[in-house]
Amino acid sequence: MQNTKKIDPVRIKALAMDLDGTVLTPDARLGDRTLRVLKACLNRGIGLIFCTGRSLEGAEPYRAVLDARGPMVYFNGAKVVDMPRGTILSQTLLDKAAANFCVDLSRKLGVYCQIYFPGTQERPGDLLMAEYRSEETALYRDHTGVDAVIGDLKEALADPRCTGCIKSMFIAGPAQQDVIRPILSEQFGGRIYMTRTYGAFLEVMSPEVSKGRGLKLAMDHLGLRPEELIALGDGENDIPLFEIAGFSAAPANAKAQVLAAADFRIGSDAEEGAAAFLEALFC
To answer: What does pTM read for this prediction?
Structure first.
């Protein structure tokens, strides 16, 4: 369905926004027009709920420049945090057995793998760890601003203080992902959630995780109804957002199945299509 729903701007109270590929430009910036429009939405009383695959650290520069407040959905829904207070509203961890299997598979196939470990009392803040530095390490650091600590992932997972991880991530091309995905599906079936983000990122999380579940928790926290919300996203991991929100929009650069699931098709991330869409509604 495309452009068949009518949005009453007066009734909209919040935007559930994916970052990469949607609100951000292809070089991971908040464009001038986007920044101006999102600030105008905030001034109008419309809340901004980030719904991103990024970590809190990787998304914080964008939240801070907007001074957006309230529950934010990170790690594709594995973590929901009330910002800027930093209060964790929800955290869902991947089982250690699945994470260990990912490490073994990465070693066997020679494919880069990294793992996010949750913060502890001794070490506040989430920890990204990889087993070696490579082009993939640099790609992730340059894209998100988060650098990996190098160490033995199997040893880290074996630590008795580790009860699970936020997510395991393979950074690999499409051909390698086509090998990895069926192996993981055969081994775990519905006991893991897999999603491809930002092209080269194949993320493995708890089956209880999705952006949709994270958004539902944020909506309950804020007392929002679906008809008061617009979701914007470009990836397969954003389709659950569309199922929760009353209205949905996908940029022209989104994959075909995402465009088919959205109510509105808007301009691409390169042309700040999200900003143009919101500007027409609210400014």
So the answer is: 0.94
